[in-house]
Amino acid sequence: MKCPSCSSQLDLFPVAGIDVQACREGCGGFWVGRLEIKKLPKSRAGSGRELLTLGGVSGVRIFRDVEHICPQCETTLLYRHFFSKRHGLEVDQCSKCGGLWVDFGEGNIIKRRSDSGTESSLENWGQLEGVLKDKLDQMDPTNQDVQESKEQILRLFQFIFPPPGKPRPA
């Protein structure tokens, strides 16, 4: 599969029992397919924090337009559910296969602090969680598909970040 943000090759990156396709040689974004998304409710909160270690390679051009092509379907445009310039984060989903593309951009506050080894990434997760929930709460509550997408996105971020006040997984 090719990265929808920078066109680099995506590599299998298993983390805590979830197989993710990661752009390790490019922008540092990752793809979670529909079958892997279904496994998320069984995962412990924070057990996927290793995804924060995916770093973009210097000089890689990131395509920050709204039109990303699904890396799995290769023909369907991804639908942008969430974008935060402040947090350097984008979450897109394929309406055909249901996979999620997550791009922690170069300017991502949480990722930078996580890389520096500080515990403040949890503090920043609290800030991002509020922004993410506010954005997701604006999604159409009467549409069942939209509600399912909202729950999947929240589960994915709970997989990546432990809840504030809880110890980090070993």
Write down the Rg. 15 Å
Q: Could you spell the SSE succession in H and E letters? A: EEEHEEEHHH
Strand content: 15-25%
Largest sheet: 6 strands, antiparallel
Approximately how much helix is present in the residues? Answer: 25-40%
**Spatial strand arrangement across the major sheet:** 1-2-3-6-5-4
Rounded to the nearest angstrom, the distance between the terminal CA atoms is: 31 Å
Sum up the overall morphology in one term: globular
DSSP strand tally: 6
What's the helix count? 4
By secondary-structure content and strand pairing, the structural class works out as alpha+beta
Stretches with pLDDT under 50, minimum 5 residues: 118-123
Domain count, please report it. 1
Average pLDDT works out at 78
Blueprint of the fold:
Blueprint: E1 11-15, E2 18-22, E3 30-32, H1 34-39, E4 78-84, E5 89-94, E6 100-104, H2 109-115, H3 120-137, H4 144-160
Short description:
With 170 residues, the protein is of the alpha+beta class. The chain has helices at residues 34-39, 109-115, 120-137, 144-160; strands at 11-15, 18-22, 30-32, 78-84, 89-94, 100-104. It has a six-stranded antiparallel beta sheet.
